[in-house]
Amino acid sequence: MLFITSWAGWGRVHSQAKYKSPQESIDKNWQSLLLEALRQFDEHSDSVIEQKEKEKRRRIRLIQEKLKPIVNSKGTEFVLLHNTAGFPITFLPSDENGKLEAADLGNNLSTFFEEIGRLQKNLQATPANFIEIQFGNLCFFCSRVPDKDAWVTVLGDPQLNAGFIRLELRKAVKEINSLIL
Predict the structure, then answer these.
(1) Backbone angles phi, psi at 131, to 5 degrees
(2) Cα 7 to the chain's mean position, in Å?
(3) d(CA 20, CA 30)
(4) What is the DSSP letter of 85?
(5) Per residue in 65-75, pLDDT tens?
(6) What residue spans define the domains of the chain?
(7) With a threshold of 0.90, does the pTM exceed it?
(8) E strand residue ranges, the chain
(9) Which CATH superfamily is domain 66-179 in?
(10) d(CA 156, CA 82)
(11) Phi and psi for 90 in degrees, rounded to 5?
(12) Residue 8 has what pLDDT?
């Protein structure tokens, strides 16, 4: 029964009338065996989910380690790894962060990427891989993670070392690529 419940769509069970097994090996009724198999199956699926969550947390920690040189750089407000819709994967605020939270920026990023897509289409350009905008009081960097629906966004003040950020972003997006599923 345990084996049958693990099939997940494979196989077919049927009974045969007047079939006599050569030896009686089970001393419980079939309902209790089925309930026990389903209980074990349920416990196994919970442990699989728990293992997946543990692995996800491990990958997030590794991603955060790869992004630490950027967030620790003087003038960086925060580093946000997110998808194109702005949904955060991980958020690393610096000790100096006082401007925005991940959710605040995430709401604006989806609109930003829609506009970038329209501009790309109008200009007949290939998709952007790196975006840098220097406002009067903020520096904004976005770098696409290759082959993923993911971007690393950095927000910092005008004294930020832009060359260092560009270099570290180029390195970080390559390193975290394999950590994003």
Answers:
(1) -130, 130
(2) 29
(3) 16
(4) T
(5) 999 999 999 99
(6) 66-179
(7) no
(8) 76-82, 88-93, 130-134, 139-144, 151-156
(9) Dynein light chain 2a, cytoplasmic (3.30.450.30)
(10) 17
(11) -155, 150
(12) 58
CB atoms within 10 A of CB 92: 19
- Reported as a single tens digit per residue, the pLDDT across 18-29 is 777 667 666 777
Token pair of 104 as six digits: 């605040």
Which residue's entry shows tokens 């491990």? 58
Six token digits for residue 130 = 């790196």
- Calpha distance 81→145 (Å, rounded): 9
DSSP string, 21-83: -SS----S-HHHHHHHHHHHHHHHHHHHHHHHHHHHHHHHHHHHHHHHHHHTSTTEEEEEEE-
CA distance 97 to 95: 6
Contacts of 75 (CB under 8 A, 6+ apart): 96, 139, 156, 157, 158, 159, 160, 161
Is residue 168 within 8 A of residue 69, CB to CB? The reply is yes
Residues forming beta bridges with residue 134, ordered by sequence position:
139
166: left (phi over 0), alpha (psi -120 to 50) or beta: alpha
Residue 107 is predicted with a pLDDT of: 76
178, 73 contact by CB (below 8 A):
no
